[in-house]
Design brief:
The protein has about 180 residues and is mostly helical. Helices cover about 85% and strands about 0% of the residues.
Length: about 180
C-alpha cells in the first residue's frame, strides 16, 4: 500500500505542477506533510534545503528523498518515476500539438492564465517557509540579507545556502 500511495501522490503532483519544480513544492508539501504525514513541517524545510543543495531539479530531488524515506530505494524509484511520468507524457503531447494550436486564442489564454496562478503557488511556498523556517531575529536577518544578495546578483544560490548553513551552525551551535 505504501508504494501505491507514493505512486499516486507523486503522480498527482506531477500532473498538476505546471511551471517547474518550485511550482510543485506547495503540492508536494500538501501530499507529504498534510495528506500522508510522511514528513513533519520541519522535516519538509530540511528536505527543501537538501533538494536545493543537491544536483538536479528541486522537485525531483524532493520526490526522490521522500520516496527513500518512506520506502527505501524502491520507494525512491516509485516516487521519482511517478513524478516524472506526467511530464514525459505532457511534453510529448505538447510537442505534437502545440505548434499547430499556438495561435489559438483559447490555448494562448490558458497559458497566460497559468502564469498568475503559478505566482500564487510560489507565494504560498514563500509564506510557508517564512512561517516555519524563521524563528528569531537572526533567522529573519539571514533571510533578508540573503534575499537582498540574491536580488542584486551579489551571490549565487548554492554559496548562499552554504553560507546560511555555516552561519546557522556558528550562531545556533554556540547557543
Amino acid at each position: 500500500m505504501t508504494y501505491l500511495s507514493l505512486f499516486l501522490a507523486f503522480l498527482r503532483v506531477g500532473f498538476f505542477s505546471f511551471g517547474g519544480g518550485l511550482a510543485a513544492l506547495p503540492l508536494i508539501e500538501r501530499e507529504i506533510v498534510d495528506t500522508y504525514h510522511w514528513l513533519s513541517k520541519p522535516e519538509f524545510l530540511e528536505l527543501l534545503a537538501l533538494s536545493q543543495l543537491t544536483p538536479g531539479p528541486i522537485a525531483i530531488n524532493a520526490a526522490t528523498f521522500t520516496g527513500f524515506k518512506v520506502g527505501g530505494m524502491l520507494g525512491a524509484f516509485v516516487a521519482t518515476g511517478a513524478f516524472c511520468l506526467p511530464s514525459v507524457f505532457l511534453t510529448l503531447l505538447v510537442v505534437t500539438f502545440l505548434s499547430r494550436f499556438r495561435e489559438n486564442p483559447y490555448v494562448a489564454g490558458f497559458l497566460r492564465g497559468l502564469r498568475p496562478a503559478l505566482l500564487a503557488l510560489l507565494f504560498r511556498v514563500a509564506l510557508s517557509v517564512i512561517q516555519d523556517g524563521i524563528h528569531d531575529w537572526f533567522g529573519l536577518l539571514l533571510s533578508i540579507t540573503g534575499g537582498a544578495l540574491l536580488f542584486f546578483g551579489k551571490i549565487e544560490e548554492i554559496p548562499l545556502l552554504l553560507c546560511g548553513g555555516l552561519l546557522g551552525l556558528l550562531w545556533y551551535g554556540w547557543r
